[in-house]
Design goal:
Layout (H helix, E strand, L loop, with lengths): L1 E9 L9 H17 L3 E6 L9 H6 L2 H9 L4 E2 L3 H5 L3 H5 L8 E3 L3 E3 L8 E2 L1 E5 L5 E8 L3 H6 L2 E3 L2 H12 L5 E7 L2 H10 L5 E4 L10 E3 L2 E4 L7 E10 L4 E11 L7 H18 L2 E5 L12 H13 L4 E5 L10 E4 H7 L6 E7 H11 L2 H4 L16 E4 L2 E6 L5 E8 L2 E2 L5 E7 L9 H5 L3 E3 L5 H10 L7
Parallel strand pairs: 1-2, 2-3, 3-4, 4-6, 8-10, 10-11, 11-13, 17-24
Antiparallel strand pairs: 1-14, 5-9, 7-8, 12-13, 14-15, 16-18, 17-20, 19-24, 19-25, 21-22, 22-23
């Protein structure tokens, strides 16, 4: 006898709720089909379901996302970095208290107390025909953040070895829920052939029909849930082995939205409006924002960031503020809309020469006009860099291009080898935007505060802003 087993999954929604009612429609239809055929199915999320860019998630600190997953009848989830490192310790510790599904994250552990009751290192289920399935979950290892928040993420390979040792002799099929990214998934598939299926995420890769690496099937469904994934495993009970594995990612954007889910989202949005509607200040004139020049609000925000830390000077990109503040009451919802990024302050230690290079690159047209997607940035372009306690003197070439003539600290040129502390957005500690910052050996993150929380304090001192 052969038995078909189904897994339906989502990954990296990032609170893009426009697609969620259609996701629910797809899942309902698929589960109904499986049930009518008498076949087992489970519904899974691979992490980054939440993102504090959305007011519903911001207002509820992710608990609304859990409610949506409950109502969509999910069976298992693992956590992504947006669940893991954008929430204060207590918010993550209690995030899944009301979850009606299993949270599996094999490499996450609490360092301040016992692990929360919802956190499972592994889980096993049995199909209708008796096939025993073991599930592991892994999240990306951002320990500089996790350690400051009271958590630790262990090495993926060490954890896999530990959990496989427990599971291999009491399960028939092993499934890894991986919020590690495509490269890590491929490496795991090569190193651990006993894993039958890796459902992936984190790097937003889309595998429309899956990919076989050695003996392991890899699958993932992109980002924002434009696609939803499904996997079908065929188990031969006579041969006692898998005889077929198939994966598909289906575009669901054309489907009819689930009405109940739309109504639920409307209620959650109304609740978020009430929570975030608290007045911060009242203004009679607009506070203007400009991505390509220094404004009073960006200057004061950068100065406030400097006061927040022990740095020598500060640097922020004007693209962090997306829109103007209009006259009237300014609320937390306004601040969230105008500065939606899950970005933290970070102090880096750099030499005078390295600071000079950072300033030079930061004021090039290429970086100012860069349309960045990722690294926590949720705006449009990086924008012009604004400095505090650092005087940057610029001039223009004959072709109109701006260049840096001098960088002064306390009225004097930076000393070439002297070490200075610069506070900026942690966006620049990733990738190759500003290599000197990314390579810095000394980095001090400020968590759980986001830049927008410093913006709130800046606005509370609005009486000092001019222009």
């Amino acid at each position: 006898m052969k038995e078909n087993i189904h897994f339906y999954y989502t990954n990296d929604l990032h609170s893009y709720f426009d697609h969620w009612p259609r996701v629910v429609t797809f899942l309902k239809n698929k589960r109904k089909e499986s049930k009518e055929r008498g076949e087992s199915s489970w519904t899974i999320d691979i992490g980054d379901h939440m993102d504090r860019v959305h007011p519903i998630t911001e207002a509820s600190m992710g608990k609304a996302n859990v409610e949506l997953l409950n109502n969509a009848r999910y069976d298992f989830v693992t956590i992504g970095n947006n669940e893991g490192i954008t929430l204060a310790h207590e918010d993550l510790y209690h995030l899944y208290d009301q979850a009606q599904f299993h949270v599996i994250c094999s490499n996450l552990e609490c360092t301040l107390s016992e692990n929360p009751s919802w956190l499972l290192p592994a889980h096993t289920v049995t199909s209708k025909g008796g096939v025993r399935i073991g599930l592991l979950g892994l999240t990306a290892r951002f320990n500089p953040y996790y350690h400051l928040l009271g958590w630790n993420v262990n090495s993926a390979h060490e954890v896999i070895y530990r959990e496989l040792t427990k599971l291999q002799h009491k399960t028939d099929v092993i499934v890894l829920l991986s919020h590690l990214g495509i490269d890590e998934d491929k490496e795991i598939a090569k190193r651990f052939p006993s894993i039958d299926l890796i459902i992936g995420g984190h790097t937003h890769h889309l595998l429309r029909t899956g990919e076989i690496v050695d003996q392991t099937l890899l699958t993932a469904a992109g980002k924002h849930c434009s696609y939803v994934g499904e996997v079908r495993i065929t188990w031969d009970h006579e041969e006692k082995k898998i005889t077929n594995k198939e994966a598909y990612a289906t575009n669901i954007t054309h489907l009819t939205p689930d009405v109940h889910t739309e109504n639920q989202l409307a209620i959650l949005a109304n609740n978020a409006d009430q929570i975030l509607g608290k007045k911060i200040i009242h203004i009679d004139k607009p506070i203007n924002v400009d991505w390509f020049r220094e404004t009073a609000i960006m200057k004061q925000l950068t100065e406030k960031l400097l006061d927040w830390t022990d740095a020598d000077f500060a640097m922020l990109n004007a693209g962090l503020l997306i829109d103007h503040f209009q006259p009237g009451d300014i609320t937390y919802k306004d601040v969230h809309r105008i500065c939606p990024h899950p970005i933290n302050p970070c102090v880096v230690t750099l030499s005078g020469d390295e600071i000079q290079e950072v300033v030079r690159v930061s004021l090039t047209e290429e970086l100012i006009n860069l349309e960045l997607k990722g690294f926590g940035f949720r705006g449009v372009v990086i924008g012009r860099m604004v400095f505090a306690n650092l005087d940057v003197v610029t001039a223009f070439h004959n072709n109109g291009q701006e260049y840096v003539k001098a960088v002064l600290f306390n009225g004097l040129p930076l000393e070439s080898k002297r070490l200075y502390k610069l506070v900026t957005a942690d966006t620049f500690t990733f990738g190759r935007l500003l290599p000197e910052i990314a390579r810095a050996k000394e980095k001090k993150l400020y968590l759980p505060e986001f830049i927008r929380e410093i913006l709130v304090k800046t606005l509370m001192e609005y009486r000092h802003i001019r222009g």
